[in-house]
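Contributing: when you submit paired examples, paste them exactly as shown. First protein:
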Amino acid sequence: MSNSTLCYLGLGGNLGHPLALFDEVVQHFAAHPLAAGTRESPRYRSAPVDATGPDYVNSVLEIQWLGNAESLLQACLALENTLGRVRTTRNAPRPIDVDVLLVGNETRDTEQLTVPHPRMHLRRFVLEPLLALNPAVEIPGLGLASVHLPATLNQEVNLI
């Protein structure tokens, strides 16, 4: 789509029924008036990073987004709220997390939004599903996402 931007969202959750919530996120963005197309990666299970709690379920959603980065962030935050996300402490267990990973080749660092996501290249649970969707994807300022995967192979991630 000529007026759309290729964006990637990271989905995660480890409380309740994250698989069902992922289905709702995919359906929401498939029907969203600013989304011109969506594809979800395979889903993975991973141990929490820098936290305790049950294993996480993770995937990446690719979206052709017709709005700007802020409108995508607002759509993600509103959906998390609708699906029962309550923000407590950083890295706390949660039913759903919808993170903006990439917005085309944009880079920005504001109080509300940092793209590319600042830790995405350090997390196998992000890189594996992202590369499953697009093996040639680049992280602005960091190059090909695939070159960062070997440094994360010590993090256990399993296909569901």
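Second protein:
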Amino acid sequence: MKHFEANSPFARDIAAVLHPHTNVRAHLEKGPEIFTRGKGLFVYDEDGREYFDAAAGLWCASLGFGVERLAQVAYDAMKNLGYYQIFRGASHSAAIELSERLLALTPCPMSKVLLQCSGSEANDTAVKLVWYYWNAVDKPEKRKIISRKGSYHGSTTIDVCLTGKPEFHAGFGLPFPGFLYTDMPYYYRHHVDGESEEQFSQRLADSLEQLILEEGPETIAAFWADPVVGGSGAVLPPKGYFEKVQAILRKYDILFVADEVICGFGRTGNMWGSQTFSLTPDIITCAKALSAAMQPISAVLINDRIFEGMKIQSDRNGRFVHGFTYAGHPVAAAVAIETLKIYDEIDMIGHVKAMEPIFLGGLGALKDHPLVGDVAGCGLIAGVEVVADKKTRAMFPASVGLPAKLEANALKQDLILRHVGNRLAFSPALIITEAEINDLVSRVKALLDLTLAEVS
């Protein structure tokens, strides 16, 4: 129930709040859905209605909502050192311990950790470090960056250039020159009849190499990829894809940046998506589950090659001139440390591995539904492809308004999930139980049945 009283949160929101990823004009009439609390996998609105959040907020509430242990840690940290910066050699114990813990967890050898405040900040910073490195080794012409169509890497001006989704560029005069986009590894949607996953991967690798040769390998600085493409609805790489891509990057001396903002800390069934898909990046960016979303914090992990370049540039320029006021915030760092401790104590990776076959099996059973063309996932992240024709993989025309129908029918099941066009994405809190998975699958089947009745 919406409240239009002048002093209600609903009316005050319309008067004051500008919402991301929201139609500005429509919001003035529809208004917000105001949430007041959360517990476990569930959130509650101002009227007490309970919702099953199958997206863990924005892929990030890995320990669920309302984690009192982390709240207590934040309170204690705030009392002790409510804020301090890490500029000009200043430090504090939380920044040190968190960085040490992250280096101990890395999927491949890393040298240093640069703490930041968000996934967007981490990716934006990583772009600067890529350019910083190539300038350090006297190859400033290596400046172009390749990412992938359909990818999402953040909302800063530079991150949106990394993002391979035209709707993120529209109206902003973006992207800037020098950002290139290769094919998205979306086997189900883009393979040709009779093409195996390995053949599809080889075709995409050949396309990437052709792009590099056309642009000039001496101009390409880095390749950006998230292990699972979250921006297109949890799309997994096909067999052989990253093996072939990494060989090309090594061939032309192109840095590899793994965006682990969504995939890091257990989401794919390992601590890192890089472990799940055998990646050896030069730089890793991470955020979200680093603090179980209880505090805004992120990190950029760099290998020794990048750090050696940073030392050269720091000597040339007198110092490394980069930083954010709240980077390495002692409260956020303390919460992140405690989050990592919790993961270890409850064997979060073991739990995800135990739930994975139940989760993927439950969603996989939906492939028999008339609207479902494909289900793919790993760990506790998955995508369900909704199609008009299972045989041809044809999608519904825009006039059908499928995304709006899917969202509305999900809410009828008191279910919150992410949808990217015709694809449903699932990333529940990593603490999900077998009973909750069964509950989730039941709600998804119900929303699909409602949608089928509307489009038939």
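If you have annotations for the second protein, write them as plain sentences, like these:
The chain has two domains: 33-66+347-455, 70-345.
The longest helix spans residues 434-455.
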